[in-house]
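Checked the freezer inventory, then went back to the computational side. Two predictions to log before the end of the day. The first one is the construct we discussed on Monday; recording sequence and tokens without edits.
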Amino acid sequence: MTDQPPPSPVKNRSFKLLAAGIAGVAVIAAAVYGIGPLTGNAGGPPECKPAVALAKKIAPLATGEVAAVNVAKSPFKVPDLAFQNRDGKPVTLADFHGRTILLNLWATWCVPCRREAPTLDKLEADLGSPDFQVVAINIDTGNPQRAQDFFKKIGVKNLTYYADPSAEVFQKLKEAGRAIGMPTTMLVDPKGCEIGTVAGAADWASSDALKLIKAALGKG
């Protein structure tokens, strides 16, 4: 058997640099796309720790029609998103502080969003109150009237119409690792902290959804 020469120090150094570079790319990807445990500053905002405790408590109810709910594992403060109401007047997420909200981003070109909309309307009809509101934000960047016409067509009567023609609300949640496609839905506590997030559609009119939301409101 022929002895192999020892590896070159230069090659060893190059390999270590390459490995370090790959690890760095993985960390960046985790931060941008929400892969892995990266969520920002270590420990997260202290005011959001109760939301994580609540998420852990209601986790067993994330089943059936709402099995896709990914409950918060670490404190995360949702960015103060800016959008507008039906009249074009500015609204921010901070305007809803003090109540639990189900934040939903949707668009008319998104087929699952169109199927999900009536269930969100029903959830608002069943549980809407000073303590809870479904905040559905349309992010169509084309004709905003199309979204309002869609609401009328399917008979939405309980949801308040909100829109962001710039789609910046989606971009901000994507940068935070909380949105990868449409629809995106977040359950947010009265302090603006994440309780849970759903990538994709869910049946929010189902008994499973009602149990989950009621538990989040302390009514379960």
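The second is the one RB wanted added to the comparison set:
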Amino acid sequence: MKKYTEIEDAPTLGLFHLTIDDAAELIVMDMWVGGDILIETPDDWDGDERDPIITRLLSGDVEKFKENLIASINKGMLNPSVTKRDFNDLLIPEETYLDNEDILDWLTERNYCVGDIWHDWISNQVAIVEHLIEEIIYAREIISSGKKIPSTFQYKLWTVEYDGEDLKEAKLCASAKLLATYKGVVIENQKLKEELKNNKPSQKPNKADRPLTTRQRKTFLIIIAALCSSAKIDPEARGASQRIKELTESLGVPVDDETIRTLLSEIPDALEARMK
């Protein structure tokens, strides 16, 4: 795919938009991978769909689709989000942008359903959006704290030799990694702040959510004992927890056997403490 030449003119900085050149190339690549376009691949092809050999073999089909897209635009059947023409009123394919949804509608009208290559492209656009959101969170937090946004660094992920000119590159790599780590901490911190703000932990919890005091717990255990007595259930008898479990199930709010057994085991001590 070619780089955007006028990305500042494209809606949302070109996200989910394609130039005519890029759209034609993506359509053809998608069709080829899906088996709708056939080419004779060389014996030494390594399977990389971005191999220049494949691009060259598909170039004729790409040109045909460029012509089809331009023809549809000129007929008013496809509306670009950004239109650029030269002095001869000819569309400039590398600077005229089409919305992804409009291209999909155009393809659907021609009975074509996009496949893996197109879906991969959409996934990549989503990944870019997610990255931009992280960057916005970071920049917003830095600015709100009165600091300046640090310069970003390009860095390589492979091992760098620490001698001569490579030492400068190694330092740049280390600085970039440090900045990336710092940004990650800032972003995570801001996310936590927003979560805490949304959850409003400073508000007093509802009474039902507060933990029971020892006195309250013993009172509830005595109430349970009284209900067991009324239902002719001996809390200390074998099978008592199973009978109570069945009662909770009949209410539609089942409680597991182990939880019930634990509560029943605490009843004797609660009764003894209250009788003193």
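For RB: Residues 28 and 34 are 10 Å apart (CA to CA). The mean pLDDT is 78. Let me know if you want it refolded.
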